[in-house]
Description:
Elements: H1 3-27, E1 29-34, H2 42-45, H3 47-57, E2 63-68, H4 79-85, E3 90-94, H5 116-124, H6 129-138, E4 142-151, E5 154-157, E6 171-174, H7 177-185, E7 189-192, H8 198-203, E8 209-212, H9 216-219, E9 228-231, E10 239-246, H10 247-252, H11 255-289, E11 293-296, H12 302-320, H13 324-331
Helix pairs in contact: 3-11
Amino acid sequence: MTNLSRLGAAGISLAVTFLMATAAQSQETIVPLATWGGANHVGVRQFVPALEQALKDDQPNNIKFQHFPGGQIGQDVDMPVGIPTGRVKFAWITVNGWSGTVPDTKIMDAPTGLTMSQLDALIDKPNGLMPALKTKFDAKNTVLLGLSDLGPPAIVSRVPVKTPGDLKGKKVRVFSEGQAQAIRAFGGSPVTIPFADVYSAMQYGTVDAAIIGFQGVDSQRMYEVSKYVLVPAAYIGTTMMGWVANKQWLQSLPEIDRNALIKAVDQASHSNRKAVVKEIDDLTKSYKDKGMEVTILTPDMPEFAAWKTATAPLLEGILKRLSPDVSALFLAKH
């Protein structure tokens, strides 16, 4: 073979390799997950690797997963517009923040009194909360792929708080209108204070107690300025996280990749629920080790009935404003 022939053969080989690589790239399905907040949040730290692993386990698929953390594509508050319009394809959300877009998500701020295990069961049951909310999100050009309860907020205080009556006459930090309504119903005074200022508000007595995410007790070092932590089931609501996709984008994916993504998110969201429960257990031990008295309200405790009675009118009012199918799920629990 002449040198010219060899060069020609090499050129053909390179061209074939290039075309094969180009064809392989063109077959890739790019899945860009948008998250926000801290990298150590369980919804990022645990969920993202779990999703990647689930996608790998469910081969064959042509998915190339990309993670855009820290609000690179959008913050949580942007998602109720970003996802339906297609500006964001796939994202992690706080479900509570969608009440203006999907009104039935207001149930997350309602005083249902459900424990995390009860709510998980309600999400997963046939014709339960997940299918009901999927229908509502679908009407807003959004596909709800997974849910994970971050758990009810906690009440931190310098004096014991076990029942709604203990909040009478107290100034209490809140972070939602639903919580404000509850505190007023209990005879307290709700005060809206940014998350970053809760420590100083407790330190200087601006408030007597504060409603804060259970995980936030650690990040805000509440153990330095308060002694008591109460988690009153979901009688002051719960924080529900979710994973959603733009409807047109998801439907445009090749069937094998679309099905793989749907299955992987479901698997990862369920593993995320378990991770949240473990995190709460670990934090409970940590708070106790730091000298706090931690009470997690359960149905077998005498204080449970006091919370149920005090919040019943609030729950009734919220359920009347929700879709009948969603309301029926929670009426059946009371």
